[in-house]
Amino acid sequence: MLEAFTEFFRTLAEDHPRWNFIFFYEPRQWARIVKGFQHTIVLSIACVFFSVVIGVVGAWMQSSPSKWVRRIVQGYIQFFRNTPPFVQLLFFYFALGQFTPTVTGPDGWTEVPLVSNIGWAIISLSFFAGAFNVEIFRSGIEAVPESTQEAASALGFSRLQTYMDVVLPLAFRVSLPALNNNLVNLVKTTTQAIAIAVPELLYQSVSIWSDYPSAQYPTMILLFLSFIFLVGILVLGMSRWERAMRIPGYGG
Q1: What is residue 45's predicted lDDT score, i.e. its pLDDT?
Q2: Tens digit of pLDDT for each residue in 191-221?
Q3: Domain containing 157: what range?
Q4: pLDDT for position 51
Q5: What is the mean pLDDT of residues 43-50?
Q6: How many domains does the chain have?
Q7: 108: in domain
Q8: What does the pLDDT read at residue 104?
Q9: pTM for this model (two decimals)
Q10: DSSP readout, the chain?
């Protein structure tokens, strides 16, 4: 069955050179696609997780009694929301990356940066999406009635306990639709990591069609369908989570 599959695409490439699905019959090219897909998934999951954490912590800090803490958070938001994520990625990798400590490589001679290009991509994109998540969670927090927070305080809850046990669970439900949109955009933005040579799916796809120009159209189709699949899984999961967390009569 597998041999018939590979033979079909090999014959297709011979008869129609512009449709060379080389990754379906060339093991080395298929390995590059798999490697790129794995890096894209890792990059997406890590960025989604850290950006949500940043959003939750940042939204809590925005209600801090200290005006300096609030100003720092607001400065962070303005910086990352008002500059292109591509420029941020280059800044983190090429500017801040120069100050990254190095460790001795496996060969005992070369110096390897402590933070790799994948690490800088995760840091940069997480901070970028996190700035939007802070505002998303802040809007959700403002939707929680003040009387609910006062009731928690009257029961002896600390400020942190009130936020974690009362405010955040309610605010999260209100924030999920906007959060869903931002996380979808974040997954799509991971393709910009190609600029610092992160071997994700777009990087590997470009490498393939650079080596085999006849594979350009098929590789672009595979790339397109792969992101439809990834984003579709995320949207489906977030939508089901939103329905599961919905409280009748609260948050629409």
Answers
A1: 95
A2: 999 999 999 999 999 999 999 999 999 999 9
A3: 45-98+116-245
A4: 96
A5: 96
A6: 1
A7: no
A8: 74
A9: 0.88
A10: -HHHHHHHHHHHHHH-TT---GGGT-HHHHHHHHHHHHHHHHHHHHHHHHHHHHHHHHHHHHT-S-HHHHHHHHHHHHHHHSS-HHHHHHIIIIIGGGG--EEE-TTSSSEEESS-HHHHHHHHHHHHHHHHHHHHHHHHHHTS-HHHHHHHHHTT--HHHHIIIIIHHHHHHHHHHHHHHHHHHHHHHGGGGGGGT--SHHHHHHHHHHH-GGGHHHHHHHHHHHHHHHHHHHHHHHHHHHHHH-BTTB--
CATH number of the CATH domain containing 216: 1.10.3720.10
Would residue 73 count as lying in a domain?
A: yes
Band of residue 107 on the pLDDT scale cut at 50, 70, 90: low
Measured CA to CA, the distance from residue 87 to residue 124 in angstroms comes to 10
199 in a domain, yes or no?
yes
What is the rounded distance in angstroms from the CA atom of residue 1 to the CA atom of residue 124?
Answer: 44
Residue with tokens 């008002």: 82
Specify if 106 maps to a domain: no
